[in-house]
Amino acid sequence: MSLAFPFRIDARGRSAEVFGDDHIRDMIEQVLFTVPGERVNRPDFGCGLLQLTFAPNNDALSAAVQMTVQGALQQWLGELIEVEAVTVQCDDATLNVTVQYITRMDRDRQLARYAKELA
């Protein structure tokens, strides 16, 4: 059992909780959308994905973003997941990220999709 991300209150009036795969998805989201330097006690946490959204869209940037995201996920969540593929697309004012991974505990293949409004 872990606290839900983003933090919220559940129907019982308590801190919302998540379990298993939902917790892993929450942790992936935190790594993806946390800017390095944002966390006080972990200044290198995150991958800086949001900082790259307004850079020119080309193949080189796309490859760099994919490697940066995959490296950050391996660094911070490598004990829990094995990253197979990362896809990052920017559509108008929305950043779409798809992460395909295998959970190390039960070897289940998972696909997580995240969308972040940029405006």
From TrEMBL:
It comes from the Bacteria. InterPro entries: IraD/Gp25-like. Pfam families: GPW_gp25. Residues 21-106 form the IraD/Gp25-like domain. This is Gene 25-like lysozyme. It comes from Amantichitinum ursilacus. The lineage of its organism: Bacteria, Pseudomonadati, Pseudomonadota, Betaproteobacteria, Neisseriales.
